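Hello, quick one for you while I still have it in my head. No rush at all, and the record is pasted right below.
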Amino acid sequence: MAKNSTAESTGPELVITRIFDAPRVIVFKAWSQPEHLMRWWGPHGFTLPVCEVDFRPGGRWRFCMRSPEGNEEWQQGVYREIVEPERIVFSYAFEDVNGVSGLSGWKPGHQTTVTVNFADHEGNKTKLTVRQTNFDTVAVRDDHVRGWNEALDHLADYVVSDSARS
């Protein structure tokens, strides 16, 4: 697990908390704009060639993550709550390229809820908490612990870059 990170997993829920060496406004921006999301979203080795974001309550998002082997995983959801720069809540589900829901380990139509909280932390840093709830299985939840931690590793590097601060 990454430095300055904790993960808790119980039942159908996971919680990851991490401290970022960047102000809250920069970390929030990295979650809210496609040009930033494309630079950090996904596990190690994955890219995000498709990143559609309608960043407003009720707005939809849709991403395509591509693995190093070229496999694609499509994700989508709806932003349920946005309180800048404090919180983002969105639904999260897998689908195929044609928008048909489901993926290995996920029941068709099944969605989780992701809540991301951004808090000021000492020394102009940000305490980020990601909470994802309503997993179907422990195995799917545990896979997301790995995926989120790897994505947050990328985010930690990105928010201290010049690209994130422009």
